[in-house]
Amino acid sequence: LGWGWCVANMGGPKYDDGDRVEGCGTGFRAMHWLNIEPCGMICASVTWLIVLYCEYAVTFHVLMPWLNISVWGVFHMLFFNVCAWLALTSHIKAMTTDPGAVPREAKPLHASNQRRCRRCDVFKPSRAHHCSLCNRCIVKMDHHCPWVNNCVGLGNHKFFILFCAYVCFISCYALLLMFLRYTSCLG
């Protein structure tokens, strides 16, 4: 999904109260969750550029000159590139999944718990926090991550952890490949 898709789908169907559904955003009427905050979009783009450059550098400057198109060369290229694409897929999922925003219609289970958020004026469950960038209350909010341009909460925590794990793995794998190439050049 790109910017064009989000813009083309703005002003979709109407709710009973006459409000239009937004295409992409973090508001109560958004059809698709996507924080369109400019600094976060730049950080998310930089994240993609770093991972894609890492793919390019490992494939064309480490593996191709060292192992060429041998069985081990193809194995390492495929394995590294699949792991990098899994990292990018996890990034997209962490970025476009609702982190656990409290809906406007949420009601407390017990009448004794009537906490309301002062900023977005919705019921605020326990362990929910208001994010000033998403402008929503998020259940089990960990933090707002600029690199995925989204809050990390109950709904996307798994994708965020997967993204971090894949990036850590491909970083260590790239270092191992560079070390192995270096030692093969010495001896």
Describe the structure in your own words.
The chain is mostly helical. 49% of the residues lie in helices and 12% in strands. It is built from four helices and six strands, in the order H-E-E-H-H-E-E-E-E-H. Strands 1-2 form a two-stranded parallel sheet. It has a two-stranded antiparallel ribbon with strand order 3-4. Helix 3 (71-96) packs antiparallel against helix 4 (157-186).
Helices and strands in order:
Elements: H1 3-8, E1 22-25, E2 30-33, H2 38-67, H3 71-96, E3 128-131, E4 136-139, E5 143-145, E6 150-152, H4 157-186
Parallel strand pairs: 1-2
Antiparallel strand pairs: 3-4, 5-6
Helix pairs in contact: 2-3, 2-4, 3-4
Observed structural traits:
187 residues; disordered N terminus; mainly alpha; 4 helices; 49% helix
Summary, kept brief:
This protein has 187 residues and is mostly helical. The chain has helices at residues 3-8, 38-67, 71-96, 157-186; strands at 22-25, 30-33, 128-131, 136-139, 143-145, 150-152. A hairpin with a 4-residue loop joins strand 5 (143-145) and strand 6.
